[in-house]
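fyi for ur records
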Amino acid sequence: QVQLVESGGGLVQAGGSLRLSCAASGRTFSSYAMGWFRQAPGKEREFVAAISGNYGIAYYADSVKGRFTISRDNAKNTVNLQMNRLKPEDTAVYYCNADQSIVKVRTTTADYWGQGTQVTVSS
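which gave:
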């Protein structure tokens, strides 16, 4: 079983930065792929970034490439999302997810999800 709790959301001006964290629990945490999705009001949940459990290979949505960085610290059981040069279009609730499969983590079918943290980027 894996439990996920996101933190670090808030209100920032366009061009600013935020660092989201996802605290995870689970005996085999390091073997799980982890990821981030986001959902804006009235929109479907969309993929943001993912990182594999095997080699720490990162994947990004085109909309965030070059601005966001996903990382994991297995010693602290955390997955982070460093968000730079934020845009109003980044405003959404951000969800952390996890699964044994990197394929599932990159979709809405991942087995485990956090409750979400709000990110608001002002114009």
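Residues 13 and 55 are 34 Å apart (CA to CA). thats all i got for now
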